Amino acid sequence: MKWALLFLLMLLAMIMLPAYPVEAQPLSKGYLVVTFDDGRDGALAYAAPTLQQDGVKATMFLYEGSLDQGWQGFLNRQGALKLQNTFGWQFESHSMTHPDLNHLSSGQLTSEIATSKGTLKRDGFQPIASFAYPYDTGWDNATVLDSVRQSYVAARKASVFGNVPIMYDRSRQLGPSGCYSCPPDRYQIYGNVVTNTTSVQTLTGYLDQAAANRAVLVLVFHQIVSSGAEEYQYLGSDLKSVIDYAREKAQNGVLESLYFSEAVELLFGVSSFPTSCVLVCLPSVSGVVVAVVAGIAWAFLLVRWNVKRKDRGATPQLSDDLAVA
Question: Is the dihedral of CA 255, 260, 262, 264 positive or negative?
Fold first, then answer.
């Protein structure tokens, strides 16, 4: 009976804890996370072939409202799915209509944050487990953050930096806005925005810093063009130079390419593809406590039930003297 109870306790822990807190151990190398926002058509025309050729992974933060509108410069649904099915990109949510999240009602927030996730998943995009704040709004708004936490395992914000990028290891945020004494917040992961003024030398410098610090670097691109790049556009030729450099670093064993979902799991131990959630997913330290307490309580109840069952089934035994008589 004791072995049965131990087995049940272990089984409960396994099915209730698909996610686990990662110990703050140093990373073994630098990591590059290439992300794109909005669903612009240059991702398919220029970026995807370049990244595929050099074996670099990419993640698109897509907003549902951009699909099938016929907007110039945007992918349609077929083109976006081609990025996933032909070029191996992953997709995450960037809201439903790309609004300023700080000026929405409760119902509008639900639509933009939670409903967009379900809609994108029904469209066939995967994993849709993380969120990017439109216009970099809402990440410092408690109401918005609460809604994001209810639907996603992580979230990304974005900003433009100089020659020193924001990077992460398991215990710190590194860079100009570093937090050197506190763990990173997985709902406020910085992406480094690339604009038309970001030089190839700046981005290769970012890669060098990620490798040297053994840290995770997240880049954010919007549109890729062949010429005449405007503010949030980047030349395809310059992108190729940067990605070729990343491939060289990877060949030297000091840099590795990750999807955004893989970076979240590496840094925080939270999977975007929870396959072992039989009863409930509890991806946090508090979840661990709840699961352990629940397992102990369940085992205690089983012991009590077994004792009562034995008591009810016990039969009186005659003493040896009476038996002889």
Answer: positive
- The model's pTM is 0.80
* Pair 176, 164: CB distance under 8 Å: yes
Residue whose pair of structure tokens reads 């209810």 in the numeric block: 150
**pLDDT, tens digit, 9 for 90 and up, residues 60-101:** 999 999 998 889 999 999 999 999 999 999 999 999 999 999
Query: For the chain, which domains are there?
Result: 1-19+274-314 (no CATH), 25-268 (3.20.20.370)
As a whole number of angstroms, the distance between CA 88 and CA 85 comes to 6
Go through the chain and tell me how many residues it has.
325
Strand, helix or coil at 179?
Answer: strand
Cis bond upstream, residue 165 (ω within 30): no
In angstroms, the CA 60 to CA 244 distance is 20
Strands (E), the chain: 30-37, 59-62, 90-93, 127-132, 154-159, 167-168, 173-174, 189-193, 216-221, 223-225, 233-235, 255-258
pLDDT in tens, 263-284: 999 999 999 997 544 334 444 4
Tokens of 206: 């970012």
Single-letter code of the amino acid located at 71: W
The 10s digit of each residue's pLDDT in 136-153 is: 999 999 999 999 999 999
In angstroms, rounded to a whole number, what is the distance separating the alpha carbons of residues 219 and 34? 5
Closest CA to 21 of 266, 267, 269, 265: 269
Are the C-beta atoms of 108 and 138 separated by less than 8 Å? Answer: no
Residues of the chain with pLDDT under 70: 1-23, 181, 275-325
